[in-house]
Amino acid sequence: MAKKKPEEPPKGSPAWMATFSDLMNLLLCFFVLLFAMSTIDEDKQEQIAASFNQMFSVFDAGASAIGDGRLISNGVSQLNELDEYINSTGKMDNGQVVDDDVAAAQEKLEEAQMEESEELAEQIQEAISEKEMDSDIDIEFTSQYVQLTLKGAILFDSGSVVLKEEAGPVLDQVGLILERYAEGTIEIEGHTDNVPMSGAKYSNNDELSSGRALSVFNYLLSVTNLDPANVKHSGRGEYLPVADNSTAEGRTRNRRVEIKIYNSLSSY
Fold first, then answer.
1. Which of 72, 66, 133, 142 lies closest to 111 in space, CA to CA?
2. Domains of the chain: which residue ranges?
3. Buried b (16+ CB within 10 A) or exposed e, 206-244
4. How many angstroms separate the CA atoms of 110 and 116, rounded?
């Protein structure tokens, strides 16, 4: 009778040994990692601290102390001195850096803006003087704009937004000035005195001032080639007086239309 040939065992190590070997390797790596973490390399620690200091801009690059001789390891005791140190580095309390170069650049820009506004104001003043309209138009300027102030009495009757006939020549001259000199935004503002409206079309000074600014806006666009997108109009009511409303003369001065011509360097 033939005998069954015994089966040969599988070649190589048993499967459980591979799993056991992997487990041992992982345990070995784990303990090596624990050992490495328990060993403090002072040089590496200082390098890491310096890297963090440089990254967060608390200290100068590579520094490990607030000021000379005060070590980072004593950081808790230095909290009371931190504000003083930050301020001494050129930062404000809110963290904003005060840079001398930036401040100087801003000052130069404002000087340039003021010079441009002054030059523009002189040119406009010369044009107005040639037309003998100095009594009708006042000129002022800031670093942002040149302002033409038109007296309300020559533009409108009391409580009205309809332009008077004699307003035409004045606004025609203003239109020529705007076409020639205005390179940026133009803003038309209507202003009134503080006398309450009664029995008129408009119920209050806010509406009246807005209507007057709009009337000037529409007239200027009809006699010039100004781009409407560059011209704004608004009513400021009685809230920005330039004189005392308790006197007739002051109220007359407060009834006005202001036209602001922003210069090319303006931040507006």
1. 142
2. 23-64, 103-262
3. bbbbbbbbbbbbebbeeebebeeeebebebbbbeebeee
4. 10
**Residue ranges in the chain whose pLDDT is less than 50:** 1-5, 58-74, 76
Report the CATH number of the 103-262 domain: 3.30.1330.60
CA distance 240 to 235: 11
What per-residue confidence (pLDDT) applies to 71? 43
Q: Under DSSP, is residue 144 helix (H, G, I), strand (E, B) or coil? A: coil
The structure's pTM equals: 0.63
Paired tokens of 227: 């781009």
Contacts of 180 (CB under 8 A, 6+ apart): 127
For residues 263 and 116, the answer to whether their CB atoms sit within 8 Å is yes
How many CB atoms within 10 Å of residue 186? Answer: 21
Q: Is 234 helix (H, G, I), strand (E, B) or coil?
A: strand
pLDDT tens digit sequence for 113-151: 999 999 999 999 999 999 899 999 999 999 999 999 999
147 bridge partner residues: 140, 260
pLDDT at 73: 46
Contact (Cβ atoms closer than 8 angstroms) between residue 188 and residue 221: no
Which pLDDT does position 203 carry in this prediction? 85
What pLDDT does 95 receive? 56
